[in-house]
Amino acid sequence: MAFAGLINASWILFNFWHWPISRIGYSGCCLGDCHRLDNRFHYLFYLLVFKVEMVSRSIPSRSVMKASGEDMLRIGIPAAGANMMTPLAAGIMTAIAAGFGDTAVAAFGVGARIEPIATLLVLAMSSSLPPIISQNFGATRIDRVEEAYRISIKFILGWQLIVYTLLAIGAGLIASFFSDDPEVISAIRLFIWIMPVGYGLQGIIILTNSSLNALHKPLSALYLSIARFFVFYVPLAYVGSVYYGLFGFFAGAVCGNFLMAMISWHTFNRAISGEHRLRKETVEA
Hints:
Radius of gyration: 22 Å
Number of strands: 0
């Protein structure tokens, strides 16, 4: 993935400026991204089919396709639904920010660029934790599932605290990179001082959702995603914006993440307790 990112950046830069011939602009960026996706697809296809042979070259029977498809869709459809919540909520949040004018929209837009970088490790762990959870769940080692989850949560909270500290210290410098307007700089600083407080809490939510998918509980993860965005995150941000302006908008979003993180933690622990109880009943039977 890191190599693909470097290739993507190189292709986009080359196609944007089209060295050494002529600059072709944003159409070059699109072309570079298409090249990146095409090359990545062909490499992964070769890797999975020919090198590690994880994908069979023979056409499966209808019964095999049906059984495999049902298993994948049972987890895949709710997981896809949960992923759809993020851009939908982002659109609503942008609409709320628009009520404060162009300055707030600019600050929120900058924050949307900062967030993926600040939560990069969270996103990486959301991909690396589920295989560990799923493997130990399949081996009926629920104690290891619980241990992996707890260690991950502790680590991500500590890491995001460090990230927040660095962002808060450099808030003014970061804001000045994006704008020369004092009002926009002030709004960006406010975003950086408040919103990243919730990134560790957001990490709990994301890791819990991915862990629940690994435990074959995709509907629980979907319900948590719906509740996060449309019961806590967006509504509390809106209420905060009504009473306390832009500060309340950001603070309300953080409060929503806090409440949802607590619920996510409780939901996972309840799921683990249920698995412990089920294993105990199975042994006794």
